[in-house]
Amino acid sequence: MSETKKTKTEQVALFRYGVIADLLHLQPGTKGLYRMLEEKAAKTWPIPFSTRCRVAEETIRTWLRSYRNGGGFEALKRRCARTRAIHARCRKR
Predict the structure, then answer these.
(1) Where are the alpha helices (DSSP H) in 1-93?
(2) How far apart are CA 16 and CA 48, in angstroms?
(3) I need a labelling partner for 64 at 20 to 30 A (CA). Which of 51, 79, 80, 81 fits?
């Protein structure tokens, strides 16, 4: 992986970690967790290397699950399958 790509990947992972950091100490199913996810999804975020400014509740939930399920920070570096598929279609055009 090139140094530039590695740096971008790290910055995206740091962003994702910043979104979920205050939720990590909560146990899955904690009362109020869904409300907190909704609040985070309603915010605007300065998403690195993206023109978007919102993150879906389900995306935040996926990052939290990936981090908790043993992946830790490394799990936040990975692209989801949907994102990979979208980028693959764009490259074919």
Answers:
(1) 3-20, 33-42, 57-66, 72-75, 81-92
(2) 10
(3) 51
pTM of the full predicted structure?
A: 0.79
Given the structure tokens 């790509």, which residue do they identify?
Answer: 5
- Which tokens go with 3? 């140094």
Among candidate residues 70, 60, 81, the one with its CA nearest the CA of residue 17: 60
Which one, of 56, 54, 76, lies nearest residue 65 by Cα? 76
Instruction: Name which of 41, 71, 64 is nearest 53 in CA terms.
Output: 41
Q: How would you write the pLDDT of the chain (93 residues) with one tens digit per residue?
A: 677 888 899 999 999 999 999 999 999 889 999 999 999 999 999 999 999 999 999 999 999 999 999 899 999 997 755 554 544 555 555
Q: How far is CA 40 from CA 6, 22, 89, in A?
A: 27, 11, 30
Separation CA 27–CA 85 (nearest Å): 32
